[in-house]
Automatic annotation (TrEMBL):
The keyword Membrane applies. The chain crosses the membrane at residues 19-39, 46-66, 86-106, 151-172, 184-204, 216-236. This is NIPA1 protein. Keywords: Membrane, Transmembrane, Transmembrane helix. It comes from Piaya cayana (Common squirrel cuckoo). Belongs to the NIPA family. InterPro entries: EmrE-like, Mg_trans_NIPA. It is a multi-pass membrane protein.
Length: 254
């Protein structure tokens, strides 16, 4: 797991966020396939179809994703972080989080799955950009130049933001798993979390600025395909249905 998280961190520093975040869902089909062979867990026909759709959608995402980074240096990162549009977006997100955490969650959290999912997903607006920003700032920390000190301060701030957001996410993920089915929560959480992370990354890093209409539609179709695959794997994994049932005659009774 630790190696996987390190690889995920390196991926955020090397390629656009709009590609890394949706592809994180590949852990679900690969985990399901391994569990069916190693742990002898049953993978029904809908689960197998979901694995196929997740892999196919991921290929479409890779083909149509941005081919180059929009932010590659610490100076560019600092400029993006102080952009009025991104600052305004963060203010809106913080306001929504305060409303959800202190007013809505205590009253409706245990009965409405979207409350906890919204909190965890909105925190993704801080988690993923902070992870990418740490990778960019870390490149200048060990250089002997005037910008290395600024890079160190920026990295520490982003680490603090990342740590706080992860801790709060873990808290509300555990609350959600105590109240709701983990499969349903996981499927909805992936779709909402990924959508909000892509929105935050688009505002901050402007990764969509060089994407044409065809590539944009291709990525939208790829993300939709992956999302449908995750829903089939997670939500319908207990559905007792296999391909052999298709050959059974349809018995009608008067």
């Amino acid at each position: 797991v630790a190696l996987g998280q390190i690889g995920n961190f390196l991926a955020y520093t090397a390629v656009p966020t709009v590609l890394v975040t949706p592809l994180g869902a590949l852990g679900v089909p690969f985990g399901s396939i391994l569990a069916s062979y190693l742990l002898k867990e049953k993978l029904n026909i809908l689960g197998k179809l979901g694995c196929l759709l997740s892999c196919a959608g991921s290929v479409v995402l890779i083909i149509h994703s941005p081919k180059s980074e929009s932010v590659t240096t610490q100076a560019e990162l600092e400029e993006k972080l102080t952009n009025p549009v991104f600052v305004g977006y963060l203010c809106v997100v913080l306001l929504m989080l305060l409303l959800l955490i202190f007013w809505i969650a205590p009253a409706h959290g245990p009965t409405n799955i979207m409350v906890y999912i919204s909190i965890c997903s909105l925190l993704g607006s801080f988690t993923v950009p902070s992870t990418k920003g740490i990778g960019l700032a870390a490149q200048d920390i060990f250089h002997n130049n005037p910008s290395s000190q600024r890079a160190l301060y920026l990295c520490l701030v982003l680490l603090a933001v990342l740590g706080c957001s992860i801790i709060i996410q873990f808290r509300y993920i555990n609350k959600a798993l105590e109240c709701f089915d983990s499969s349903v929560f996981g499927a909805i959480y992936y779709v909402v979390f990924t959508t909000l992370v892509l929105l935050a990354s688009a505002i901050l890093f402007r990764e969509w600025s060089n994407v044409g209409v065809v590539d944009f539609l291709g990525m939208a179709c790829g993300f939709t395909t992956v999302s449908i695959g995750i829903v089939l794997i997670q939500v319908f994994k207990e559905f007792n249905f296999n391909i052999g049932d298709l050959n059974k005659p349809n018995m009608k009774t008067d």
